[in-house]
């Protein structure tokens, strides 16, 4: 399943990048060069606790900034990076950069508890992933519990799933594990009992359908309930408006992320976001009814 999807994306990717880079280099070589030339960048999207509206952390999202100034979204190159294996060095760069930026924010006095980083199956399976993470944490003297690895259901349970031992080793390091795009995989829920998961991230598709009522509302409410029963944190992805936010808060969801709160932005914008958070907190303390 993943392979087929990957191939389709790969074709799209090739055309698009051949166009972008105006060359006939293979996707592999283009990505390798991009990594060497330091053309990848991270944007960060705030994670917001509810109902207070406090920014408690960020999710790191990679982009490719081509020499001609185009910003290529991850959906256009991550599948190819996974197929070619370049996801391993690229993923390591993402982890190191996100940890370095988080350290800088914390050192600057920001009150943040989470830096979330997406990790793909090939990365998790790659020998040395745990050691790499351990050395990155050491390099920046970062408390492991601030790093939250986002792993999809497919990576946890699908074909070529990550070894359970790796997940336990990551947990033993003190890292946090979140299930990304929860509800979109085809897996059974049994893994939630067996794996050391801390958080479920409700997939954006359920959140965007909340206004149409019915099924999406039932599914979102059920995931929040499941999280509560299993003592897992639950975050709603892709919150874009007040209706969605109100529904989620009313149903007990304690964390959200989405354009309603903030787009992914470059690192330079983050200290200002932290400042906004402080004002929001102060406002919330004076007026308990104030919107986040
Ligand atoms: P994801 O991890 O589920 O990340 C959330 C995606 O939803 C991001 O897209 C984000 O920009 C977008 N998003 C956030 N809020 C909203 C909203 O309110 N409405 C809508 N319509 N979209 C919203 P992005 O940055 O294009 O990333 C897409 C996917 O690429 C990510 O999905 C993740 O699976 C993957 N990805 C991104 N960075 C990395 C990375 O460093 N490593 C790996 N392995 N995968 C990555
Ligand atoms: Mg994610
Ligand atoms: Mg997600
Ligand atoms: Mg998603």
From TrEMBL:
Residue span(s) of domain EAL: 24-278
Report the transmembrane regions from the record. Answer: none
Q: What's the domain of life for this entry?
A: Bacteria
- What is the annotated signal peptide range for this record? none
**What protein name does the entry list?**
PAS domain S-box-containing protein/diguanylate cyclase (GGDEF) domain-containing protein
Q: Which organism is it from?
A: Hyphomicrobium facile
* Portion held of the full protein: 307 to 598 of 607
